[in-house]
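Deviation from plan, reported transparently: flavin mononucleotide complex.
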Amino acid sequence: MTQILEIRDLKALAKRRVPKLFFDYADSGAWTEGTYRANEEDFSKIKLRQRVLVDMTNRSLETTMIGQEVSMPVALAPTGLTGMQHADGEMLAAQAAEAYGVPFTLSTMSICSIEDVASVTTKPFWFQLYVMRERGFVLDLIDRAKAAKCSALVLTLDLQILGQRHKDLRNGLSAPPRLTPKHLWMMATRPRWCMKMLGTKRRTFRNIVGHAKGVTELSSLHSWTAEQFDPQLSWKDVEWIKERWGGPLILKGILDVEDAKIAAKTGADAIVVSNHGGRQLDGAPSSISMLPRIVDAVGGEIEVHLDGGIRSGQDVLKAVALGAKGTFIGRPFLYGLGAMGKEGVTLALDIIRKEMDITMALCGKRRIADVSRDIIADYAM
Ligand SMILES: Cc1cc2nc3c(=O)[nH]c(=O)nc-3n(C[C@H](O)[C@H](O)[C@H](O)COP(=O)(O)O)c2cc1C
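Because the crystal trials were delayed, the predicted structure below was used instead.
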């Protein structure tokens, strides 16, 4: 096997080990995928200042995100269907994040449920909420996250209507996969994935099935999802969600300065500058290109986080330098999970940590808390 030295190596291995329809589900963006690509490409336009002859001993990446201690400013982003990249994927990723000292965020659209993840972790994780029309179900989700002692609610604002991803339509994506000849072939060519999947009972959306009214099995779930995301969600709704939750609240999916200003007034603890990994509005700017403007507008009022396109520790460092207090990674940990299960998630975090640590030193800094725009030589995005 080739040596795994960077996130790209994990991606290549995941491609060989995960059935095509699920690998493609992770590695895709909306329509032309222009925003998906820009998220990654724009990081390379930011140049770092090389500094010499400064003390480089005793370095530390430790910091806080919404006041919670983290071993580095990187959280695992909420991703739907993670348990289809690898059997019990959410539980394994949560365990890897816990051991690493970084937050894990469980998606509403996960395969393993809130209770499944709570049963295999000892420290609190974060829960991501999608708001459905059926408010009773939303209230119940919030209460379940509270009962599981989740330490932050991440409210996603940018997916009340689904963007279109061509790959998913072409592949006929569903979970669990329908047993058509095409899907059987995609799975048969990934025997290791099949063996693990046969060994788990978690193969459907376990936060939803058996909890939402009228959803007892999967055939009704598909239409339920399409009908249920509430396209009338408004800033007013943030108020009751905040009140019902009563804990730290993070608003995810802010990409515009005006929205950031409104978000800062809601009393939330943080915003995530994000375009959903390029999966929603194709043609929107990259997350990193919007970060400096948003930080300038609201950085003094609310903690600003970022996700989208982070593929290395250098990328995390650049985001921190431009004002992000923390970052989230989606695909990097999914590739690790698909490639090697829990070990692969740990490896993804390790790769990012090492790259960030060495880059920080070469920029003349010893503590992530001291990193600011002065390590940036130039950026033109
Ligand atoms: C496969 C996949 C599924 C996702 N599902 C969700 C989700 O259920 N909820 C959510 O808030 N964001 C979801 N996202 C968006 C991520 O939370 C995050 O914004 C994005 O992955 C960051 O970009 P990156 O993958 O380039 O790191 C998903 C992203 C991917 C790649």
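Residues 305 and 325 are 6 Å apart (CA to CA). We consider this an acceptable substitute for the interim report.
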